[in-house]
Amino acid sequence: MPREASQEKGRVGARTAQRWLEATTFIELPWNSYKHEAQCEIECLGDSIKMFDLAGYFLTEERTPVSVEVKNVDSEDHLREKFHEFLAVAYSSTARRKLKKRADDKREFMWVSWHPFGPMSRWAKLSSTEEIELSLTEYPKLLDGQVVDTSILQEVSKRIWVLTFNQRQETLSLDAEELDKVMAALSRKRTTL
User: pTM score, two decimals?
Assistant: First the structure.
């Protein structure tokens, strides 16, 4: 697929995922990597920087930040590799905050793809500590020579979301006008209005 076409497919995927997730009324994603690069960047060990497609926060009292990686694809071609990179980045960025003795922002990491990926026997374990540790063996540069910390593995495992989107799900979501009305009535949104 030509670069321009794949970029447009990525933009469409990011917009669709944003609408779908915001329609849950539990998450707000005001930033995307196409217009707000700085807000979508994640700093990893070794001071490398990775970019997520969307960034925002949960509409809870804590306003927990969330970074979302979106894969608008028609097949599972290379999805597992990309998912493992996503896991390694989640671990690396969380470990970096701890290493730099910065406050833990409790960031959550969401993976949204249009296609499931295998092996399906591992589907229920995709956010496990074992899967994250495996991903770090495949992307060792994201460790920057640091030893894997079991407690960070456990934290990151609890912060991973793995979602598969089907185009028909859009028909079950609130549209923008409906969402505006609902959000105005919800107490979790009132503090930001």
Answer: 0.89
